[in-house]
Amino acid sequence: MNTLNINKELDVKGLNCPLPILRAKKALADMESGQTLKIVATDPGSVKDFAAFCKQTGNPLLSSEETAQDFTFVIAKR
User: Fold this and answer.
1) Counting Cβ atoms within 10 Å, is residue 67 exposed (0-12), middle (13-18) or buried (19+)?
2) DSSP sequence for the chain
3) Euclidean distance between CA atoms 43 and 7, whole angstroms
4) C-alpha distances in angstroms, 74 versus 4, 12, 13, 18, 42?
5) Active site residue ranges
6) Beta-carbon contacts of residue 56 (< 8 Å; ≥ 6 apart)
C-alpha cells in the first residue's frame, strides 16, 4: 500500500456502521476523479461495508488491509 499516492486520509476509528461509510461518501464528494482516499476503521463490519460501497458506487477499492488493531482501505474516486 505504500506505493499508492494518497490524496486524503480519513480516521473513522471507534465509529460503527453506517458512520464510516457516510464519512467516506462525504470525503469522496469533495475529491476529484482519480484521487485516492485512505480510510482507517476499527469496525469489523467495515470490510464488507466498504466492499459493497465500492461495488455499488463504482469507486474502485484499491486496497484493503487488516491488522490486529484496525482495517485500512484505499478507494479511488471514479
Assistant:
1) exposed
2) -TTS--SEEEEETT--TTHHHHHHHHHHHTS-TT-EEEEEE--TTHHHHHHHHHHHH---EEEEEE-SS-EEEEEE--
3) 23
4) 9, 13, 15, 18, 15
5) 17
6) none
Amino acid at position 34, single letter:
G
Which domains, from first to last, does the chain contain? 8-76 (3.30.110.40)
Sign of CA dihedral 14, 19, 25, 31: negative
Look up residue 27 and give its amino acid.
Answer: A
pLDDT value of residue 3: 74
| Residue numbers in the chain where pLDDT is lower than 70 | 1-2
- Quote the pLDDT of residue 1: 44
